[in-house]
Amino acid sequence: MRDINILHEDQHSIIINKPAGLAVQGGKGINFSLDDYFKNFGAVLIHRLDRDTSGVLLAAKENDAARFSKIFGAQRKAEKIYTAVCADRPENDKGVINDDLLVHGAVKKSETKYKLMKTGKLSGIDFEYSVLELELGTGRMHQIRRHLAMINCPVLGDDKYGNFQLNKNLRKSIGLKKMLLHASRLIIKEFNIDITAPFPAYFNLFLS
Length: 208
Fold this sequence. Notes:
Blueprint: E1 5-9, E2 13-18, H1 34-39, E3 43-45, E4 54-61, H2 65-72, E5 79-87, E6 94-97, E7 101-103, E8 106-108, E9 112-121, E10 128-136, H3 143-150, H4 164-174, E11 181-188, E12 193-196, H5 204-207
């Protein structure tokens, strides 16, 4: 079993700092998934993160699964804060991206709030990056990644919606092989939960 960083555990839930590259659900070619991991704690996953996204992930103990599902579902009482390192910078220092997204053939209303935390440049590489704090108003597939690409600020290391040439340059110059999107904080007031997940080491060059 993989070494997973447990951030919090009580009688209601278990919360981990998910590493990038770890699958949430099992499937073809996947030998280990978080679904399997949480079964050892008598817990079930309530929400999801993309395989290449790191950060806070919660599973509910079986007796509380229904309550947590409502909080993450229609009630939307769970505050999920993300941090992304992006190419370029948005036109405004804060705002809302509400472009509709196509999900499984249907057009869905979508909302992502963002706030600019810092900008910077890497020595020897001709581009500006920005660090954004983001909060989801809706939970569509790949929503943050798609919305940031729509405003020409794709997440660095994103091999599906990102700037592929820039990603290639960063792999060669600084060895960046991971996507720089992290679920950094989870707040659920009903359960007195306010958990922050430390950033993976490969964020350090951009956050320092």
